Automatic annotation (TrEMBL):
SMART domains: LON. Keywords: Hydrolase, Protease. Signal peptide: none annotated. The keyword Protease applies. GO terms for biological process: proteolysis. This is ATP-dependent protease. Pfam families: LON_substr_bdg. The keyword tRNA processing does not apply. SUPFAM superfamilies: PUA domain-like. It comes from Paracoccus acridae. One of its GO terms (molecular function) is peptidase activity. Residues 11-198 form the Lon N-terminal domain.
Length: 208
């Protein structure tokens, strides 16, 4: 994946619990708070148009997020914005800078995620005949639906990343999926999380 800009040392942050952006994926976001409307306006004035999506963690922020380029936006009648971010690269948070803008700015390190800037990954070990029955049971147990024909035809990366982003895992599990070094690692973790949930893991956590 080639971009006509250099990755900046500082980017604005959009903290959002339960939302992660996987490499080369897209995510729609609804922007309505005044500070984030300002952030969007400022981002659109840059050549990179990057916004760092990152999860809150404890009293602070997760160590790793993913920066997306604003590739589409539309304004509603009441001034809110619907935007689409296209993932550019994951980053490691090095320093959060507060007080300069109404939203958070951060110094970030891109060096561990050079793979994100390359072409899409494949997962030769992906066994859809094993994954899909598990996924069907999981979807049914959570009263979810999907387009199974589209899922069967989706490339490995699109399938795994869309499931990792969309399925109702905990914020911590979603963070672990984001931090998975490779697509194969992410698929193994994804399948493990599905199997754990099907064996009662969700219920056990609720009873504790």
């Amino acid at each position: 994946m080639r971009f006509r800009f250099d990755l900046p040392a500082r980017i604005p942050l959009f903290p959002l619990a339960g939302a992660v952006l996987m490499p080369r994926a897209r995510i729609p976001l609804h922007v309505f708070e005044p500070r984030y409307l300002q952030m969007l306006d400022d981002a659109l004035k840059t050549d990179h148009r990057l916004i760092g999506l990152i999860q809150p963690e404890g009293e602070g922020l997760a160590a790793i997020g993913c920066a997306g380029r604003v590739v589409a936006f539309s304004e509603t009648d009441d001034g809110r914005q619907m935007i689409s971010l296209l993932a550019v690269s994951r980053f490691r948070l090095t320093e959060v800078q507060e007080g300069f803008t109404p939203y958070l700015m951060a110094e970030v390190d891109w060096s561990s995620f050079g793979r994100d800037l390359k072409g899409s990954e494949e997962d030769p070990s992906l066994d859809r005949d094993a994954l899909f029955p598990l996924l069907r049971r999981y979807m049914e147990s959570h009263e979810l639906s999907t387009d199974w024909d589209a899922a069967a035809e989706a490339p490995d990366e699109a399938l795994i990343n869309s499931l990792a982003m969309a399925l109702p895992f905990s914020p911590g599990d979603k963070q672990a999926l984001l931090e998975s070094p490779s697509l194969a690692d992410r698929r193994e973790l994804l399948q493990g999380l599905i199997e754990f949930a099907l064996h009662g893991g969700d219920n056990e956590e609720r009873l504790q």
